UniProtKB/TrEMBL annotation:
Pfam family, one: HhH-GPD
Coiled-coil zones: none
Cofactor note: Binds 1 [4Fe-4S] cluster.
Transmembrane segments annotated in the record for this chain: none
UniProt biased composition (Basic residues): 210-223
Stated name of the protein: Endonuclease III
GO biological process, one term: base-excision repair, AP site formation
Keyword Transferase: no
InterPro entries to which the protein is assigned, alphabetical: DNA_glycosylase, Endonuclease-III-like_CS2, Endonuclease3_FeS-loop_motif, Endouclease-III_FeS-bd_BS, HhH-GPD_domain, HhH_base_excis_C, HhH_motif, Nth
Species, as recorded: Paenibacillus mellifer
SUPFAM superfamilies per the UniProt record, alphabetical: DNA-glycosylase
Amino acid sequence: MNAADVRHILDTIGAMFPDARCELNHENAFELTIAVLLSAQCTDATVNKVTADLFQKYKTPEDYISVPLEELEQDIRKIGLFRSKAKHIQNLCHILLERYGGEVPREHERLVELPGVGRKTANVVVSNAFDVPAIAVDTHVERVSKRLGLAGWNDSVLEVEKKLMKRVPRDEWTLTHHRLIFFGRYHCKAQNPKCEVCPLLDVCREGKKRMKTPQNRKNKKNAAKQDNP
């Protein structure tokens, strides 16, 4: 993919989602770290419902470790994998108190050493809480990047991240991360992407394949009629 195609993609998704942002509700780096940890294999909407009460009850690392593990499990039981996540949260809080004075470290290499915090979570935290440019590759970013040819079909998550970092200007990493998520969450969905009205169909490998089917050709014609009655 050449630089012009990349620019076309970035400008198009930017026009579609100019206000893309982190949709996990939080007020500080600590809350964001907890929210992203909880979001693994779970929707942001569900996490926000749980953290609405969770962040009222627990304000500091001390609060999370002052209750029995079973109580924390019950507080987040609507979240997938809630038992393991509750354990990660308490272990993480112990480390924050023992090593970092109760504060979330700003360094990526230190963040990934925390329980339940992988590379994606660390990238989200450093970029949103500390304004360090980063691209976190979640399921939406990975899917969209591969469909649009920004990464290869068989690339690992890390390979997708590295290719995006190479192709996207560094000062646009964080914003591009959010816009790719919005594009994948609200437009280029896993099961029913809106190929028939997609302004990036010209560079989308998946879209071109899908639009070759009779049903999708019909959908495209119907969409065109709606746009031009």
